[in-house]
Amino acid sequence: MSAVAIRGWCPGALRPMRSGDGLVVRVRPHCGRLDAAQATGLAELARRYGNGLIDLTSRANLQIRGVGEESYLPLIDGLDRLGLLDANPDSEARRNVLVTPYWTAGDESRALAAELEKALAGAALDLPTKFGFAVDDGRERVLAGASADVRIERDSAGGLLVRADGAPLGRAVTRSEAVPVGLALAEWFVASGGAEGERRRMATHLASGATLPDALCGDAAPARRSADPAPGLCPEGALVAVAFGQMQHQTLNHLAACADALRVTPWRMLLAEGMRAMPAGAGLITQADDPALRVIACSGAPRCGKAHADTRALATALAPHIPSGARLHVSGCAKGCAHPGSAEITLVATRDGFDLVRHGSTRDTPVMRGLSGAAIVINPSVLTGGR
Ligand code: SF4
After folding, report:
1. ∠ CA(323), CA(324), CA(327), 5° rounding?
2. How many domains, the chain?
């Protein structure tokens, strides 16, 4: 395959990224869905050409990890046979579309997402690699906490709107206007300098003073935001999580055998389509109150070359001590890949031990520095200030 570029950033299937455990190959399922054959095939490719581990990402993608240089091209051929490849790296990078997993057959969500993907494939848009779209057109907004720059949503009366991320209101649109207006917002973003310099996201572009043209803003208020999702049954199937958003290939294979199809979400969970009972199996988190859901950790050592500590071992040890409703983020360095936002407790590994941040992110000022992981495990009350 000629249209392949190995880079150190923005992993895609056609733009893999090097990591401490080999190449990371990111797969973007079309319209956020893998049919059972695709899921089974992807699990087999991860077993055969990777180290067997598969990540669920906050962009609703799957990442095959631990791919050797010699295994890369056979893996790409396999993904191509499963219908999981784009024509070239540029169209793959542009096809950054989240879709609500709570769609039902015949509603507009999948049709809008498919139309948007098709339009993006043919668009001459040079968007930043993190720039993305969300089709979140249910009665409540379920993707409001997920990263996206252009959002297709509904108002409280059910009308469609297109909203620039960071703007409180959007432009009311008809069904046929939704995708063209979404693309027009992306074109305006580039033309108005949003893709340049440090900003490179819609919300920061607007916050820094960029003003939307009249044709792209409006007075339509989006529907209310839904509660945070949790594992459990829903009308569309069973929502299941995996610890740290990572699973063994056997887990994906098992889920594929149980469900009609799998819908990927930005919550590091999969929606097993059509299931009427929660699946059981090693590696699956099926209870909303599972302590493993209270911790977030990046790959950490030894999987990431930049990591100063084994983040997941520490997070696993601390999970039972994190209060219900709180979140602990353990990051292997200040980059904060696993969770750029704020958490009740953040531990950042450094050369000199862990920095502790309360109610902030890896970029905020720590309240304590140089903590040893072993000491925190012995006395986890230090995380909450002894309360
Ligand atoms: S936060 Fe740092 S250590 Fe963790 S995966 Fe990202 S670069 Fe690696």
Report:
1. 75
2. 3
Q: Give the number of other Cβ atoms within 10 Å of residue 156's Cβ.
A: 12
Same domain, 198 and 247: no
Residues 101 and 180 in one domain: yes
Residues 105 and 190 in one domain: yes
Tell me: do 236 and 204 sit in the same domain: no
Query: For a substitution probing ligand 1, which of 329, 337, 354, 363 has the most ligand atoms within 8 Å of its CB?
Result: 337
* Atom 4, ligand 1: residue with shortest CA distance: 332
- 11: pLDDT confidence band, cut at 50, 70 and 90? confident
Q: Are residues 150 and 118 in the same domain?
A: yes
pLDDT tens, 159-172? 999 999 999 999 99
Q: Using the 8-state DSSP alphabet, how is residue 364 labeled?
A: S
* Ligand 1 proximal residues by C-beta, below 6 Å: 298-300, 304, 306-307, 331-333, 335-337
In a domain, 265, yes or no: yes
**Tokens 């983020």 belong to which residue?**
329
Residue range(s) defining the domain that contains residue 106: 92-216
Ligand 1 centroid to residue 307 C-alpha, Å: 6
**Do 36 and 137 have their domain in common?**
no
Query: Checking DSSP bridges between strand 150-154 and strand 133-135, what pairing results, if any?
Result: parallel
- Say if pTM beats, i.e. exceeds, 0.85: yes
Q: Which residues pair with 34 in a beta bridge?
A: 262
Can you read off the two tokens belonging to residue 244? Answer: 């740290």
Task: Calculate how far, in angstroms, residue 312's C-alpha sits from the geometric centre of ligand 1.
Answer: 12
Ligand 1 pocket test target in 299, 303, 310, 351 with most atoms within 8 Å of CB: 299
The ligand 1 atom at the shortest distance from the C-alpha of residue 305 is 8
What is the tens place of the pLDDT at every residue in 106-130? 899 999 999 999 999 989 898 998 8
